[in-house]
């Protein structure tokens, strides 16, 4: 190799190193489609065979899907699904992880937006030997807003299932968060208080990517694009304004939105260019 060629080689490899950064991997874990009405019961819905008009008036059709995000530091789980299990007691979310090649024991952090039963149902699992619930991700730290747990336990049914949440109290695996801050220098959280009083949202920033997880404040793509106040929100106007603010900022900054209740668009990378094309 001549000196010039070697110099060029070194320069080029340095450049390649500079340009190589970690790309986060997102794995949606779909538990299926459900209708929900005023009774707050989630009833399975087969989008091919079932007819929405045959369900109770005002029924909403929603997907339930948690997300695993592989970052350069962690294997994150964003909300935990309904907590349904099969006849052997295996949680659906564990089955979905195994099918995707993920060992539930590898989850390092569980980020919970709020504790409504369709978001926190899979957080715990019944230990038949003790008769008590315990964390279903034994090697993970769980992050919850400091006031959400007592709120959920006091409020109870039908939106929350206290029996399945009590294990989170005084648990070494649980970190209670304040209104805003950063976890491990790269996961930003903020209380949002639109959908429910102590709901929180997360930004995961790794390399030059930003993933935004808004839970029930930003549940579906169409809700980001259309202005409306949802009756089921605690403060519907605030939720609408937050959605609009995040949508504009997300387009400017190229965020990837993860939509927990969206059938068609589990994730969507917002950009000005995408908006003009659609
Ligand atoms: Zn909710």
Topology record:
Elements: H1 3-19, E1 25-36, E2 42-44, E3 60-70, E4 75-78, H2 92-99, E5 109-111, H3 117-120, E6 124-127, E7 132-135, E8 141-145, H4 148-155, E9 174-177, E10 180-183, E11 187-191, E12 200-206, E13 209-213, H5 221-225, H6 236-253, E14 256-258, E15 267-269, H7 272-277
Parallel strand pairs: 4-5, 5-8, 8-9, 13-14
Antiparallel strand pairs: 1-2, 1-3, 3-4, 6-7, 10-11, 11-12, 12-13, 14-15
Bound molecules: zinc ion (ZN).
What is the assigned CATH homologous superfamily? Ribonuclease Z/Hydroxyacylglutathione hydrolase-like
Number of structural domains = 1
Intertermini distance: 52 Å
Number of strands: 15
* Helix/strand structural class: alpha/beta
Shape estimate:
globular
Major β-sheet annotation: 7 strands, mixed
Question: Which class in CATH terms?
Answer: Alpha Beta
Number of helices: 7
H/E element order = HEEEEHEHEEEHEEEEEHHEEH
Q: Taking Cα atoms only, what radius of gyration do you get, to the nearest Å?
A: 21 Å
Whole-number mean pLDDT:
91
